Amino acid sequence: MSESALRRTPLYPRYARFEGARCIDFGGWELPVQFSGIQKEHEAVRERAGLFDVSHMGEFYVEGPEAERFLQRLTTNDVTLLEPGKAQYTLLCYSNGGVVDDLLIYKLDEETYMLVVNASNIEKDWDWLRQHLPADGVTMRNASDETALLAIQGPLAASLLSPLCEGQDPAVLRPFTFIREARISGIPALLSRTGYTGEDGFELYVAAEEAAALWDVLLEAGEPHGLLPAGLGARDTLRFEACLPLYGQELGPQISPLEAGLNRFVKLEQGDFIGRDVLIQQRDEGIPRRLVGLEMIDRGIPRTHYPVFAEGSEEPIGEVTTGTQSPTLKKNLGLAILASRYTEPGTTVEVEIRGKQLKAQVIPLPFYRRNPAAKR
User: Fold this and answer.
1) Hey, which of 90, 99, 161, 231 has its CA 20 to 30 A from 19?
2) What residues make up the domain containing 219?
3) What is the pLDDT of residues 246-301, one digit of tens each?
4) C-beta of residue 73 within 8 angstroms of C-beta of residue 274
5) Measured between alpha carbons, how far is residue 275 from residues 116, 268, 284 in Å?
């Protein structure tokens, strides 16, 4: 693969081993959109398991006696509910209620937290947190460059990983819990049971220099079971079917967590976090727009930023945030932010596709839920 000005993860040299590997510019990173084909990788994760390189994500450590209070002031969820060994999905908001980023918080011990942020937002998030850092009691460290992150996702994830994990069996972990000092075939890792695909799965945080060895171990162990390396393409179709938001599409500075349907991660009674006043106002006066699912009635695929209209109208009522033909459901589906009066399931709307307004119907979310029997 040729030289590039784009940033690369520690696993970049491994991509060349796959004939079908194709990289793209993803927020300044040269990352694989596929290894063997998006459809094939998508099916592997839904039916067996897939292995993702997500080392471009950012990791910050927040430490000190005031760390909990600091994070409580900055994030929408309730950090006080966390115990060491537990993780939490949450959001950073601007004062207008829009989203700075969505992230995970891991509580490592009573005064130490790890924040995992989106790759395209690393610098912005770091600056935002530093802006609000108290004078005493909290320190921050950006460990993004020294940390690699691998994700193994799919119904076979636990059974593939268990024989490799020394000591505690990862299959006994509950969702959003983690083992801080796991060892995978001798490689130290923080092992958590989270994911971004709608399937069961685990994320493994390791030192950057250990990433290639861990990748090889996981691929070798998974090969007899049909595990495939998977790229950004499958990651997007998988998270889309499960209706998990992507920053810059379902979330952003002009889209609030309530508009995005993330109410359960916004604890308005927990205390005075940044953006809370506007979110309370939205809740009390009525959320002006909402994220909905669309299923096309007419033939066409809704795509990001395509305008959406009320039936027979020429005035847009919103736009598509993400859309594609669902590989699992074989339907043309979209996520869209629409004016609230048009968000009742069963409402007919029109999506402008290539200059034509084509009919679609509002449907409930998520599009896909995994079979609970396939958890482990």
Assistant:
1) 161
2) 12-55+146-241
3) 999 999 999 999 999 999 999 999 889 999 999 999 999 999 999 999 999 999 99
4) yes
5) 21, 10, 15
